[in-house]
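We modelled the chain as a single entity of 112 amino acids. Its sequence is:
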Amino acid sequence: MLQRNLFQIEEQTAWDDLGNGIMRKIYGYDDSIMLVKAKFEAKAVGALHEHHHSQVTYVDSGVFEMTIGENKCIIKKGDGYYVPPHEVHGCVCIEPGILIDVFTPLRADFLK
């Protein structure tokens, strides 16, 4: 079973630069769950995509136009959303912000 360090310290956890105004930090995970922080600059686009994972996200800061399937919603600090497996989703960042994502199972494709 995969397991990362039990504690992830903000100042010791590196950002991965994904390009186009998006950065990511991977926090705790094992085979069944993963916590990820994603930072967006204004106008950055999280391209429409789908994956087999269930996803729950909390908006830590910023404003985003979120698309899930045929549904669009403006979300801001304190809001959240759920994405079922294989549902097409993506976002456009309106005001710079951070999304906190939880995936199950883990996103093995995020690991180096």
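As a brief sanity check on the tokenised model: The chain is about 0% helix and 60% strand. The mean pLDDT is 95.
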